[in-house]
Write a structure and sequence with these properties.
The complex is a heterodimer of chains A (91) and B (327). Chain A is mainly alpha-helical and 91 residues long. Chain A is built from four helices and no strands. Chain A folds into two domains: 52 residues; 29 residues, no CATH class. The termini of chain A are far apart. Chain B has a five-stranded parallel β-sheet, with helices on both faces. In chain B, α6 links the parallel β2 and β3. The model of chain B has no long low-confidence stretch (mean pLDDT 84). The chains are: A mainly alpha (91), B alpha/beta (327).
Chain lengths: 91, 327
């Protein structure tokens, strides 16, 4: 087996094992939890692959709200004040 | 953001913001960064966006599930693995299990498939049958085990003994149970859950399957009974009633946009309304549509409703569905 075919093989195996495991778990999960499980799995994989950073995932889950009273310009007033804090939190 | 305020405003008021392009400066934001923006500004669209994100990164098969295949389930079972069905209103796994039983030569008729619905007085019988099935290679199904919390410990032990004591290769066991009312109530012994293949197959929530389920509550006997008064009217109004039932049950799915409060409309309401219909059709020569609508809307289903606007919604459905034109 050449290194290249080995690599392809490992990738295929990883893919299929991931999916079969997920499917097994999903069969026993309630509908409203299925997306949550899929999302958590997906984020974990993306972080491992360095597609996204763990810190960003953290802030998506926690929703950082900026507390300092930076002004919201008139043209952006259509965003409610509560959401504005979260927008500032992204910075 | 300020420099593109107009575009942001447009994006913000978009119905499906997760599918629309972002204003120019953010156009190249990654899918994940879009999630962050949605989280901050449009939390309502996050579920849709997450579905999209998962299917882009892992594949569509992670968010869309194929419908449940009982034969595939059988392929995964062994004598040592129990199948654990989570019960939902309107779902009964028994016919499915009987189907694979038949395909494997196990049926209730010739005694090779044992089906016990758990309840008072079944405790000892069930344990004996389990032991017997394990030795002789029968199939055993125990339904509604959530009703027998104390007994489950004995069951857990017995199942262990059966499996350890050289189990027959054809033996299979099935359990069905309702989920506990609160998530932190742990009724089912852990070892059973750990060893079992767990199946949660929820009934689809669309109008069609709701309607079909509502209809299934009325069997031939009901229609026989209707022959003694007005069969045509009975059929028509019953359809209206079932349609109404599935509509208002379906509305619950939309949370506070469907009903202002959470109501527990249930199958009991439906069957009792069916009985009311029999009574009224027998008692009066002319069909009292207004009376029926009143009883359904203010007393039977209406008894659940505590909000005036909801009552109005409810009565509007009835006024449309329970009327002479339905014939």
């Amino acid at each position: 087996m050449t290194p290249r075919t080995l690599k392809v093989r490992v990738e295929k195996l990883t893919e299929s094992i991931t999916f079969e495991c997920f499917n097994y778990v999903r069969a026993g999960a309630l509908d409203r939890h299925k997306l949550i499980i899929a999302t958590m799995l997906c984020f974990r994989i993306c972080v491992r692959k360095n597609i996204i950073s763990a810190k960003e995932v953290e802030s998506l889950i926690k929703k950082e709200v900026s507390m300092d009273e930076k002004h919201q310009s008139e043209s952006l007033k259509f965003i409610p004040e509560t959401s504005w804090g979260a927008v500032r939190g992204l910075e | 953001m300020e420099s593109e305020a107009l575009q942001w405003r447009k994006w913000y008021s978009e119905e499906k913001a997760e599918l629309v392009e972002l204003p120019r400066a953010f156009k190249d934001a990654s899918l994940f960064h879009r999630l962050l923006l949605l989280r901050a500004m449009r939390p309502d669209r996050l579920t849709g966006a997450l579905t999209q994100f998962v299917s882009e990164n892992l594949g569509i098969e992670y968010v869309e599930q194929k419908s449940f295949d009982i034969f595939q389930l059988y392929a995964e079972t062994t004598p040592r693995t129990t199948v654990f069905f989570v019960l939902f209103p309107g779902v009964d796994p028994t016919p499915d299990v009987e189907k694979i039983g038949k395909a494997n030569g196990k049926s209730i008729a010739d005694g090779t498939f044992i089906n016990i619905s758990m309840g008072q007085g079944q405790e000892i019988i069930a344990l004996d049958q389990l032991a017997d099935a394990g030795k002789t290679g029968k199939w055993a199904m125990f339904q509604n085990v959530h009703l027998m919390e104390g007994w489950l410990k004995d069951f857990e032990r017995k199942l262990e003994i059966v499996i350890e004591a050289g189990v027959h290769p054809e033996f299979r066991s099935f359990i069905s149970s309702e989920p506990p009312p609160l998530p932190d109530q742990e009724l089912i012994p852990e070892s059973i859950l750990q060893n079992a293949i767990k199946i949660a197959n929820e009934a689809p929530q669309d109008l069609k399957s709701n309607l079909r389920r509502a209809f299934s509550k009325f069997d031939d006997e009901q229609f026989e009974k209707a022959k003694s008064h007005k069969l045509t009217e009975y059929k028509a109004i019953l359809f209206g009633l079932c349609m109404y039932h599935s509509l208002i049950v379906g509305r619950k799915k939309f949370g506070s946009q469907g009903w202002s409060r959470l109501y527990n409309f249930n199958d009991g309401d439906l069957t009792i309304c069916g009985d009311v219909l029999h009574n009224y059709l027998t008692k009066y020569d002319k069909v009292p549509y207004a009376d029926l609508a009143y009883i359904y809307g203010e007393i039977m289903y209406g008894g659940h409703i505590t909000d005036n606007w909801d009552r109005r919604t409810n009565n509007t459905y009835l006024n449309v569905l329970i009327r002479p034109e339905i014939l």
